[in-house]
Amino acid sequence: MVAHVYTVAFQGIDAREVDVQVHVSNSTSIVNNFSIVGLADKAVAESRERVRAALSAIGLALPHTKITINLAPADLPKEGSHYDLPIALGLLAAMGVLPAGELANYTAMGELSLDAQITAVAGVLPAAIAAAEARRGLICPAACGPEAAWAGGLEIVAARSLIAIVNHMKGVQVLSPPTAKVAEENGLVPDLRDVKGQETAKRALEIAAAGGHNMLMIGPPGAGKSMLAARLPGLLPPLDPREALEVSMVQSLAGELRDGAISRRRPFRNPHHSASMASLVGGGLRVKPGEVSLAHLGVLFLDELPEFPALGSNVPTLLPNTASSSAGF
């Protein structure tokens, strides 16, 4: 018997569907042979031990048979720990603990701890949107439920533990659907009225904010460039619902969406000039959004602009003995 549970693999901001196929052989052996195939990285391969311990924590043991997990399509790289939950659910379906036909109607993602708790993972919001487009429900960690609720139009099972999902599927203890959460804007946004003088610079900020222009500020240290740039987001209107969803999808992939709450405040990113190229534009071994992407629909402030590696070879000769900053949308 082959059980199917769906999850996603991320390519940039896009969530690609992955079919987690679980096959438990009928032949018995002294020890169980548990293998995962389908171009999985180290974190996915290690899920074997997390899943084994989590099932043991809820009183189940893996059968002494050959167990094969195929992550299809096999040529798509699989990265991250969010494959733990779909693998565990697929095993429960293959073992007859959960109905396999019902699980095939869900997209699942979540990391399992050794005591069968489900911990938060990045990228739940784009995964929820992809599940809604595929007309499936979503099974995710309880901590990510408010984030997933913003996708709308799909059934969401947000559980704290693996046993809670089992009880929900069996109708023993049905979980309440999560509600979308808006971030509480407790911190005060720096206001331009705090700046005394600097009338020309303030007028330039207002024009840049009104027209969505980039801005280059040149002046000696202490002239107030950073102070002025930090007040640029306060001149911009709040994000509308569509824009807030776009910004939150990028933050979700980067793991920076706190408590699953969406904010309507414009992002303000201020990377240090020693930041690597991958941290600025995104990339790395496991591709994540960089500072440029995290500043989407907000402000990207490059303090000490000539010191950045990509620009340092050209700019210093034009700006001798000065400090410069750049703010842009």
The structural class is alpha/beta
Low-pLDDT ranges: 311-323
Quote the beta fraction. 15-25%
Radius of gyration, Cα only, in angstroms? 24 Å
Strand order of the largest sheet: 1-2-4-3
Number of helices: 13
N- and C-termini, Cα separation: 53 Å
Order of helices and strands: EEEHHEHHEEEHEHEHEHEHHEEHHEHE
Helical amount: 25-40%
Query: Based on CA inertia axes, which overall geometry fits?
Result: elongated
How many strands appear in the DSSP assignment? 15
Q: How would a textbook summarize the main sheet?
A: 4 strands, mixed
How would you characterize the overall build of this protein?
It is a single chain. This protein is α/β, with parallel strands linked by helices and 329 residues long. It is built from 13 helices and 15 strands. A four-stranded mixed sheet has the order 1-2-4-3. A four-stranded mixed sheet has the order 11-15-14-13. Strands 5-8-9 form a three-stranded parallel sheet, sandwiched between helices. Strand 1 and strand 2 form a beta hairpin. Helix 2 packs across helix 3. About 4% of the residues have low confidence.
